[in-house]
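Quick review question:
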């Protein structure tokens, strides 16, 4: 992509011009609509595919609140897709010399350095090795809307594992740790820092880490497809939680805005002639830092610094699972939202995919696999 060129969502490119096969794209389009209209996997969704910096697909379908049709401008709650946005804020500060990757978290947030967490570093937080994956989750929920209260509790939480010893997904503590570090270093909440340094300059008009009160009714309600997600859906359909600052989980965005963000990353940190991060910073951010069993999720993961990396493994049912589809390279990086949304970029194929939806289902990997395998069937 020309680094001075904005994505053109008005006129998708002829697929032949960018090495995409029209029949495969039509299959992907059919899967997208079929999952809503026939399979009822979710009431609404958006999907964007980019190749070589060109818009290949830009789809939005289904019903949002009050029966309103979903459009490309409809903001969806994206859960852990948020973590990549938090990560780039920290990388920006590392690049500026204001944070060091291997410095103890307590160097920036002294209260954190207690109860076995004294040695936990910024690197450990990125790699889900800071020692406090989610030990007090049920109790902590009540504090999520109150930044001071929840960060005090995180600081006072005892390590479950010695920092750096085990990888265990820090479901929400990833964001509270790194978000408080950003606040201590910059003097501003991380949502404001993100807005000033990335969201506004990138022109992301429908993206917020804390959605404004007057925008909540424009965001589709969440639905649960399995009882294990009932509590999450109940919590995050309440406005106090929708508007809580949770730098691991609270991003509202559109597939279009997510695509712009990932295209900037794929461009080596540049978009429309403006540099957001250096190429070296992005190389470090998307390099594997931890690989193997995640002791919270109980399946293998490949973690970079704020991103998941493409991996494959055999699940308990004997199925071969590819996180970003069987066609993605091992350099592909992105993040997934809990049983719902996904966004990733693949440097080897110069491709971006972003997907939002509003039903959490246990078989989300099957939903994703249908979309992803259709996608890769179209890549020449």
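Suggested answer, residue by residue:
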């Amino acid at each position: 992509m020309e680094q001075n060129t904005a994505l053109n969502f008005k006129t998708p490119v002829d697929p032949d011009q960018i090495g995409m096969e029209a029949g495969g794209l039509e299959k992907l389009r059919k899967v997208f609509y079929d999952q809503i209209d026939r399979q009822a996997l979710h009431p609404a969704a958006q999907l964007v595919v980019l190749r070589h910096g060109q818009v290949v697909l830009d789809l939005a379908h289904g019903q949002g609140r009050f029966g309103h049709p979903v459009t490309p401008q409809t903001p969806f709650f994206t859960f852990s897709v948020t973590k990549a946005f938090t990560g780039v804020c920290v990388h920006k500060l590392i690049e500026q010399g204001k944070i060091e990757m291997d410095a103890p978290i307590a160097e920036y947030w002294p209260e954190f350095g207690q109860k076995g967490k004294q040695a936990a570093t910024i690197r450990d937080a990125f790699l889900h090795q800071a020692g406090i994956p989610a030990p007090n989750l049920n109790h902590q929920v009540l504090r999520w809307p109150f930044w001071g209260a929840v960060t005090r509790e995180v600081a006072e939480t005892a390590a479950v594992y010695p920092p750096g010893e085990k990888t265990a997904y820090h479901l929400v503590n990833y964001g509270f740790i790194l978000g408080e570090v950003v606040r201590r270093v910059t003097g501003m909440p991380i949502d404001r820092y993100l807005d000033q340094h990335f969201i506004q300059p990138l022109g992301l008009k429908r993206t917020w880490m804390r959605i404004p009160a007057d925008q909540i009714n424009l965001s589709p309600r969440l639905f649960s497809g399995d009882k294990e997600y009932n509590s999450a859906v109940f919590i995050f359909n309440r406005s106090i939680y929708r508007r809580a600052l949770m730098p691991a989980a609270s991003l509202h965005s559109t597939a279009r805005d997510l695509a712009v963000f990932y295209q900037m990353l794929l461009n080596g940190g540049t978009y429309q002639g403006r540099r957001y991060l250096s190429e070296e910073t992005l190389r470090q951010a998307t390099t594997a830092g931890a690989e193997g069993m995640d002791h919270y999720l109980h399946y293998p993961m490949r973690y970079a610094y704020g991103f998941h990396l493409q991996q494959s493994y055999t699940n308990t049912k004997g199925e071969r699972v590819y996180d970003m589809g069987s066609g993605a390279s091992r350099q592909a990086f992105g993040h997934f939202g809990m049983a719902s949304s996904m966004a990733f970029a693949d440097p080897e194929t110069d491709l971006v995919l972003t997907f939002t939806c509003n039903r959490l289902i246990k078989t989300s990997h099957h939903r994703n696999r249908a979309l992803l395998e259709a996608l890769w069937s179209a890549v020449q």
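Why it works: The mean pLDDT is 96. The longest strand covers residues 54-62.
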